[in-house]
Amino acid sequence: MKRLPVLSILLAGVLSACGAPLDPSPTSSAIIPDTTKIADPATRNALTTYDSASGVLTFAQSTPALSSLKPGDVLVSEPSSAAPDGYLRKVTAIRPEGGQILLDTTQANLTDAITDGDLNADFQLTGDDLLSTQDLAEGVTLTATPSSELKPQAGVGENYGFNLNFNRTFLPVQGPNATGSIRVDGGVAFNIGYGVNVGIKPCFELPPVCVKSFQASVGFSQSSRLNITGDFHGVMSDAVRVGTQYFKPKVFFIGPVPVVLVPKVELYLTAGGEVTAHIDFAASESITAQVGARWTKDNGWKDISGFGINGSLNPPNFSGSLKPRVGLQSVASIKLYDVAGPEATLEGGVSLDVAYPRNPNWIVNSFMKGTLGFRVKLPILGTLASYSSTVFDISKELGRSSNTPPVLALTNQPHSFNAGTPQNFRALCTTNGPTFGNGEFYSASDAEDGCPQITVTSDRDGPLSPDYTFQSVGDRTITVTARDSAGATTQLSFVLSMTNPPPSLRVLSTGDPHQGEDYLMSAAVADSNEPAGSNLCHFTTWAVDAPDTLSASGGCDIKVKFGATGARQVRVSVHDSFGAVTNQTVTLNVLPPPVNPYPVVKTSGVYTLGGTYCGEYAVTNGSTLDFRSSTSCTVNTPRYTAKAMIDNPQNEALTYDWKFIVQYQGKDTVFSSSQTASMVMNGAGGGFNNGAATTPCRVTLTVGAPDPSRNKTLTVWSGLCTYYTFRLA
Fold first, then answer.
1. Whole-number Å distance between alpha carbons of 729 and 714
2. In the chain, how many domains are there?
3. pLDDT reported for residue 258
């Protein structure tokens, strides 16, 4: 049994042979058997119907050529109105019916019609060859250039014969969570060329005629421009047919035998890959390639493919990680007569590979993929072995990003703060690019490194640590420098203003003082940005006029002994570490000495356990009490207790009213109270670690006597308290 080749195709860049002129003249060296009959013009015109499936040809009347037919002959014809693709048929029966001639036929092979001969058919398609364009997608236009307007070098990069322009939106078609769309606008200019070569020779086999060699090819040159924009999350995969081109049959001859080649081209716009954010870029590419194979009886199939690829691009704009791929796919096929033959596919386009952070940040490639094979078995040349192959799948880098300097951006953080408060000079940095957060002055990012190295300096204070506290007021220029691993730097400067509000001051006292008695007064001082903290009490001074006297000149708590009755003034002044001063004058109505001064509060205060031996000691006024935990000296021992020593020589029945008061949300709020001789200052918050705050606080005591006019009310202690606020919310 003789072995016959698989038909293959060349698809890609323009072949140099694609521009060869068409030569329809018969080949004189061919040997044609007597059983081969050529349909002359009269026979072609007489054909009224041709059914390739049933093999029945119907002729309106007989002709000399039909009269000479007998079963076993091969009838071959050029295209006609009833058989636009021509035919190659073996006659099995001749049936006259009502003046018509019906031929029953089967598909013949070229080896049935030719004993010895060669076919070398190479041609390039032009606008003159285009019969029709069908299935154009919305927004797609295709134009063809007549051959008269093409220069001889058409097909090698200039004066393309066909131009396709399109705009297409690709919707997500893979993945249940895909959203968004990608739009592709642009155009493709291309040329198309075909080549078919067949060698038929006598052989020592049955039948004694063989195909010695076979080669088929399709040549393309393609130049495209693609603009890709969109916002998309998910996997994209789509191929949309944007048009089908049908061309006039091409007729070649082996001797007197016409060989009819019918070309067709289908065009697809393709998109694929994964996009997780925004994309916007434009690229151009041009490709030339030869996709094909040659078969010989002795050596079988040999790949004869070749290709070239070039391109250019503009730097893309994008966010996120993405690998989109957009291109044009051309499917070129040839029918021999009316029987489907070889098919080749060329897909060329551009792809973008982005990863953040990475060096390089982006890479743009031009890609090209060529395949060849058969749609159906081709019996024209006998029983062909199945053949299909991806003859090349290549990618060429068009460009990649160079190292880019880091990016710095100011956030919406205010640029004015109180001196003495720590400032956050860290960068807000994420691997997804610049992002604004809370509490940072600036954001930093780097396309290659993700997070660059940061240094921060002040024109007045020098290098700044991540949590820096300015110890002076006034403006300073802050300069941030970001440096990436390649040494590229970016600087950002802004003015930071440090201000200093004066301390707040409230003078606390209860009841009217009496001449000659110690009268306790307290100063509730606070300053949110005071570095000295509780030491504000050391910056508090008192003053009175003679004959009034003070127990001390400074501190938050003072005893005043008034030497005269009537309206008397007490002056208080407090300053902070930055020099801001707050003054207050209090006028009191001093009463004459009481007939019975008792009860008298001799000492009072807040006490805790501590020290090496866990002894009890008084807590200094103005210090900070921490209620977030209990004392470490004795398990379950209250951390703080308020006590007073009362001078009550007449052993009168006294009452006690203790109050522990905090300033919660700017208002005096009783945290705990007691009606016993002392008060355990509960406030640890039950162990719930939430809502901690530090605010001014104080402890007051009212000692009730049988005669209410002799009641004594005083502030026992004042300072700051740290506590959990959930009990007060």
1. 28
2. 5
3. 94
Q: Are residues 290 and 151 in the same domain?
A: yes
**Residues, the chain:** 729
Cβ-based burial of 603 (10 A; exposed 0-12, middle 13-18, buried ≥19) = exposed
pLDDT of residue 530: 78
Please give the structure tokens belonging to residue 299.
């050596």
Q: Indicate if 195 and 328 belong to the same structural domain.
A: yes
Question: Tell me: the pLDDT tens digits for 202-234?
Answer: 876 666 766 676 666 777 677 777 777 878 777
Percent of the chain with pLDDT over 90: 30
Instruction: Judge whether 20 lies within some domain.
Output: no
Question: Are 221 and 298 in the same domain?
Answer: yes
Question: For residues 71 and 94, is the Cβ–Cβ distance under 8 A?
Answer: yes
Lowest mean pLDDT among 131-140, 200-209, 515-524, 536-545: 200-209
Give CA separation, 524 vs 562, 663, 676, in Å: 22, 11, 26
Assign residue 545 the CATH number of its domain: 2.60.40.10
pLDDT of res. 47: 97
Decide if 330 is inside a domain: yes
Among 27-36, 278-287, 535-544, 717-726, name the one with the lowest average pLDDT.
278-287
Give pLDDT, residue 727. 66
Select the more confidently predicted residue: 367 or 170.
Answer: 367
Three-state secondary-structure class, residue 536: helix
DSSP per residue over 478-509, as a string?
Answer: EEEEEE-TTS-EEEEEEEEEEE-PPPEEEEE-
| Rounded-to-integer distance, Cα 506 and Cα 556, Å | 10
If asked whether residues 148 and 269 sit together in one domain, one would say: yes
Query: In this structure, is residue 612 part of a structural domain?
Result: yes
Question: Same structural domain for residues 680 and 557?
Answer: no
Compute the distance between CA of residue 610 and CA of residue 593 in angstroms, rounded to an integer.
41
Q: Which domain holds residue 618?
A: 600-724
- Quick one: residue 102, left, alpha or beta (phi over 0 = left, psi -120 to 50 = alpha)? beta
The neighbouring-strand residues paired with 122 are 195
Q: Average of pLDDT values for 593-614? A: 83
Q: Are residues 295 and 152 in the same domain?
A: yes
Q: Average pLDDT of 105-124?
A: 87
Q: Is the peptide bond before 64 cis (omega within 30 degrees of 0)?
A: no
- Edge-to-edge strands of the sheet including 36-38? 36-38, 74-77, 87-97, 100-107, 56-59, 47-51
Tokens 């694609």 correspond to 18
Distance CA 695, CA 728 (A): 13
The pLDDT value recorded for residue 534 is: 57
> What one-character DSSP code corresponds to residue 708?
G
How many alpha carbons lie under 13 Å from residue 292 in its C-beta half-sphere?
27
| 184/350 Cα distance (integer angstroms) | 12
Confirm whether pTM is higher than 0.90. no
Secondary structure of 196-210 in the HEC alphabet? EEEEEEECCCCCCEE
16 within some domain: no
Same domain, 100 and 70: yes
Question: CATH number for the domain including 104?
Answer: 2.30.130
- Contact yes or no for 537/555 (Cβ under 8 A): yes
Where does a domain end: 470, 499, 528? Answer: 499
Sorting pLDDT into bands at 50, 70 and 90, what band is 154?
A: very low
Which of these three, 108, 132, 162, is where a domain ends? 108
